[in-house]
Amino acid sequence: MREKTRETPPLATHAARERAKQAIAKRSALIFAFFGFIFERSLKRGFHAVRLVKAAPIPAASTPRLVIYTNHPSWWDPVTYIFMGRRLFPGRPLFSPMEEAMLVRYPFMAGMGAFPISHGSKRGAADFLASSAEVLKQDQNILLIACQGHFADARERPLKAEAGIAHLANAGSNIHFVPLAIEYVLWLEKRPELLLRFGPVIDGDMLKSLPIADRLEHLRAALESNMDALAELAIARDERAFTTILSGTSDINPVYDAWRRFKALVSGQRFRPEHGRPNDGDQP
Question: At a CB cut-off of 8 Å and minimum separation 6, what does 221 contact?
Fold first, then answer.
């Protein structure tokens, strides 16, 4: 039986709209650039590579009023969002909802485009819709949402999505929704791979013609299908299916790497630090 979904969203009161304007106004391009640089360095240290599926390219840079909605597998997700906005959508302001208590704990995130929400309350729902509508007033803005609302394993099925995203099509015309699948997996190296796959663009005006429950199911199914496609590639471990958009750390152990580097030097070979790509003279 289909879960009952609220057809009428909470009213965006004048107070909610004012809170939304104040939250959105806190974003700073300078703060975004500064922490974006720091976050990218964190990814380089923490991951072997960040990879994007070749067969599912990013949305066109000209796509207006973009809502990117994702699964929510890890603590690394906000770092991934900032990196993605900086690298794949340069010059386009990125905004994302964040639990109010966490935003109090990490206030610098407001300068990076995070706006506060509170799950499980009418005010929280109204603030989410008001802030999202405020973001989507500008064609170049990108709204990025972890639609599960909680951490969940990337292979968990069926995928569950919160109903709020289904109401966003009402925020205006010419809004576009794009599912983004994220996985963090260990392949052949000491550090994990960060894998990304975009799904096809979904027309928000088309969604508006559907009941809220059908909109939510359409969006949910699109993300789940995209996650399934990424899971197949993650299991295959074939990096040729991906474009590497950031090369991270490939060391194994400082002492062992020094020995391998010396062997490569004396044999006239190029040193390759990756475990999965040994030098020609190395033994498995």
Answer: none
